[in-house]
Amino acid sequence: MAITISGEIERVDAKSLTYAQFVERYMKPNTPVVLTGLTDTWQSCSDWVLNSEPSRPNLFFFSSNCSDSIVQVADCYEKEYSDQKRVEMSMGDFISNWIRNSDNESNLTNKSFHYLKDWHFVKEYPNYCAYKTPLFFKDDWLNLYLDTHPLHRDSDICQHQNEANCADYRFVYIGTKGTWTPLHADVFRSYSWSANVCGKKHWFFLSPSQSPLLSHRNGKSSVYSVYDDISEEQFPGFQKTVWLECIQEKGEVIFVPSGWYHQVHNLEDTISINHNWFNGYNLSWVWNLLVEDYKVAKEYIEDIRDICDDFESLCQRNLAANTGMNFYDFFIFVTRFALANLIELYHAQNSKITHHFVHNLTSIHDVLAKMKLEEAFNAHNLKNISFENQSAFSDISLIVLDKSFHELRKALVKTYEEISMKDRNFTEFEKSFCSSINCLDKDCDVIDLMLDFVSKINGPEGLINLIDRFLERSRICT
Prior knowledge:
- This protein has 17 helices and 16 strands.
- The chain has helices at residues 19-27, 44-47, 59-65, 91-103, 121-124, 141-146, 155-158, 283-300, 311-323, 327-348, 354-371, 379-384, 387-393, 396-401, 403-422, 446-453, 460-477; strands spanning 4-8, 11-13, 33-36, 49-50, 56-57, 70-80, 83-90, 114-119, 170-175, 180-184, 191-198, 201-206, 242-248, 253-256, 261-266, 270-277.
- A 9-stranded mixed sheet has the order 2-3-14-11-16-9-8-6-7. A 5-stranded mixed sheet has the order 1-13-12-15-10, with no helix packed on it. A two-stranded antiparallel sheet has the order 4-5.
- α1 links the parallel β2 and β3 (33-36).
- α8 crosses α9 (311-323) and α10 runs parallel beside α17.
- The radius of gyration is 24 Å and the shape is globular.
- The model is unreliable at 161-165 and 425-435 (pLDDT under 50).
């Protein structure tokens, strides 16, 4: 079925763009863009690429240095549920299969299309600096958090999780010409960025406002590929969709906003680096997805509510299994970032980075206002949540002394320092700025101030109260 293409994604020289401009033009309005000039100095762009035309992956680098790594590989022409079938194999075996397929180039019957996806390269090889995250994507709460915190606290959930799958959301993809990724919106409805180290890709984009048009008439499935023979009877809205497209060249980086469905085809042998991430600008997208998926999980088991001792906990376990995170995981995440931003705001008043903390806290506050209305956070269910979850968000005095929380705050303030230093707004970071990473000692009263406002955080309402009182104090002080 032919699709309607209305235009191409805008292409911008990143060197002409400040961080503030990127936020206003693309991040805040949730608009995709192709950025050039960001990968010129990356080590991966020399080590991982053969000097050929067109550029091709340097398989010898990976076979020499990463042969024993266990990677996930998708069979691009075998569907499994709503995705491609995946298997695990060693990197050495993946490369052997690649070379064998290259030898069968003319025999399409015996050729397979295996696509290495979601390789946690940074976690596995932390001492090799393949690339540096571009400044525009540095405000990455998801990966900052996972560098220091587990995503799940509840032991019932942790023991069923593959820890490698939630170690971080920084990935390497490697695929031959003809490999592809089916139509989808990204995990958690996060932002993503994707950089072509070598090769060329064809992208199709559909705006979030049109996503209902992809649904099956029963509402329980979605279009798998824009190239399928799509039944108008089964997918009655699909013919109304209007798409954007782009050809992504070597060295270019695509910003994929929240909720945009996209399908991607490798036009050449390709290596890409991809991050999923979210921050204060798209936090509401994450919460909205959790609410949608919670309703589905809850409806699926509603008939056993009356015979279930702890129905809400079962709903949350199912939500974590299906979506990768549940309400309590997300509340712990939000609590940690709220406390980190409050502490940094306390020390950064009247500095050039104050607005980052104020914006973050306002965004968190807006999500908490929705969160407190959910059944999971009523008094009864909050009393029944696990000790692991309860202790992770309730006791402020313990949280702020936690080494992992200290590392999170340190990474957060470093991020905004770097953004401010490089964003052309000013050239020298203010020497008067008192960073809490060096200031949480006996002479600092920020923790006492927090505890005066709220002794313990007993749920979203308590965290809202703490933010309100802190922001009110900041307005008085400034």
